[in-house]
Structure of UDP-glucose 4-epimerase:
Amino acid sequence: MKTILVTGGSGYIGSHTVRQLLDADYKVVVLDNFANSSAESLSRVSKICGKAPDLVEGDIRDAVCLNSIFAKYKIDSVIHFAGLKAVGESVEKPLMYYENNVYGTLNLCKVMAANHVKNIVFSSSATVYGDPIELPLNENLPTGKPTNPYGMSKLMVEHMLTDMQNADPEWNVVLLRYFNPAGANSSGTIGEDPNGIPNNLMPFISQVATGKREFLSVFGDDYDTHDGTGVRDYIHVEDLADGHLKALNKIDQKAGLFICNLGTGQGYSVLDMVQAFEKASGQTVAYKIAPRRSGDVASCYADPALAASELGWSAKKGLQEMCEDSWRWQSQNPDGFPK
Ligand code: NAD
Ligand code: WQD
């Protein structure tokens, strides 16, 4: 039985991935400082699958803590989710983002190498492509200039891990570029639990549907898209989680450096999402057209062909399932996890 260290494993994508890892009979150690989550997500994971991960409360910037984990467990690979992800906050507090996301990852890799663990799967983002020069986005396109420190921190880590793998080919580095995660486990017991007013579209729509927010502001209806609103590639979080298990298989086959999109290849507009959510929930989602949000691009969607050919992965769940599962989570947990 292989042991996987999952940093940030109590967060949104992490908790869904931990559930799948446990179901697939991995032993799982979660390291999380609860900066943006609580241990409740993992208690619920245990209820879903009847197994529990080991949990260490600690920080990826803390080498002593990391070393103690590698001393205690025979870690095979690390899935590295831990990081801060609020785009607006990163503009206000850039150093906090570079310290947490870039320095934190550097520290993690140093400790991994010192403990002879050289397999890592990293949570990157489609944001590294910047303003798309071509659609769909494939991995051979050059990375662009992310419009905020959060995105820049992801690009910096991609460069850092690439250089590290070039210098020492014993490393297996899988960089997964996520498109827009949405949905929740079908039990409705775990899901996305943003702090305060959601920045992202799906949690905002869900909160309008429950009546927690009055209306959705649609950021711009004059983009060059089929209905003028922004188009994104929404991917079910369970599909995304499955991509990480496939990435571990790729590491077993000596991945070297492997960079891969995780998206569906299908773009939906903001108004498509509103309509699909109304259908799934039976609720009305009130909206008002508002000015464009600075830094937004018109359209962004993946070419998912590489993931299919190299990982044997493709998204299985469509928009309807994403909306139904988000609604089940949101309506059963209108205030998220108990605080
Ligand atoms: P999340 O905030 O729910 O999960 C991140 C977890 O990391 C949280 O549990 C948080 O407490 C923990 N954490 C943060 N800093 C830490 C530190 N220094 N030490 C230990 N733990 C720490 O976010 P998520 O949506 O699950 O995202 C997971 C990863 O995927 C992040 O790296 C994020 O940047 C990346 N990503 C997310 C999206 C998205 O839209 N959700 C898209 C692309 C990439
Ligand atoms: C989607 C669409 C908005 C909210 C961000 C990060 C990116 C990645 C995922 C981590 C856009 C519109 C949104 C609202 C709206 N995160 N919208 N009203 O911007 O594609 O990506 O999250 O890596 O780095 O930048 O996702 O969900 O914020 O927006 O009209 O209240 O919904 O303009 O067209 P985005 P999003």
Remarks:
- The CA atoms of residues 276 and 320 lie 6 Å apart.
- Residues 94-114 form the longest helix (21 residues).
- The mean pLDDT is 97.
- The longest strand covers residues 119-125.
